[in-house]
Predict the 3D structure of the following.
Amino acid sequence: MARDPIDVAVGVMCDEAGRILLARRPDGKGLSGYLEFPGGKVERGETPAEALARELSEEIGVHADTAYSKPLIRYEYTYPGFTVRLHAYTVTRWQGEPVGAEGQELGWHERGSLTELPLLPANRPLMHALVLPILLRVTPLLTVEAVPAFANTLVSLITAGEPGGIVIRLDGEAALKQLQRHFTPVPSGAAGPVLLNLGDVATVPRGFSGLHLPGRVLYELNRRPTGPGLMGASVHSPGEARRARELELDYVIVGNLRATPSHPGRPPLGWARFEEIALAAGLPAYAIGGLDPGDSELARRHWGQGVAGIRAFWPGMA
């Protein structure tokens, strides 16, 4: 009989320089030597946020203001013999200096170095949540004829340093070739990843940061697409979300959250269903459908990475 997941609260403590606090698991403890984020098991009668505040006090001697502990990501991970459900929060304000109460070694680390460190295996989704942007701008489906004008908009947006990643939707290989004449490689000033959505294309073309896949192709793939870069997918159900995780993708876009003109007749998910699908994915999840950039904090309160969109995310679009 399967046991219920063990709820664990995790604190991603960020100092003023943006560095992250990690603790090394001491000798004699399971998975000793690995680095981990401070935190611990949620006790009966506690919320995850309350458990985190208690664990930070007991484990490293700091008092964290729960008003400055924000949901980052929630997901499940199965070790041999048991499953944990991690509730990870960013913590930006606390009182006291962190000290290992059990003699564990503590250290501050740059975000960019996290993937090179011996972190606990369960922390891969959390690391992606720390580096992915809060906003994803999804283009309308671009035909060959529409590419040149929109390419100018893309370059202007990136040159201006607008925050967020970009998902470029193209209507076929000819549109990709046309785009590459105007927009390759990805400008060095890009504030986030520039991802390609071209149906069932499973390799990353020159000039892109990765691929975004439609949900319909997830069951056609036997493994994660080859090549470097980020890999994500659009999902609409817990089943598709679980398939994205099985393929070891890096993020998902979940929709449609609200009713939208682009999907007439499709019932909106709402935030409760969004949380269910995001948990099934176990990956950073963006909400899409009837949202605008100002909804990003609302999405994060519901354990989302942020929001994605088309109409409200591009200058000049109705």
Summary: Residues 12 and 90 are 5 Å apart (CA to CA). The chain has a mean pLDDT of 89. Residues 135-313 form a domain with the TIM Barrel fold (CATH 3.20.20.70). The chain has two domains: 6-126, 135-313.
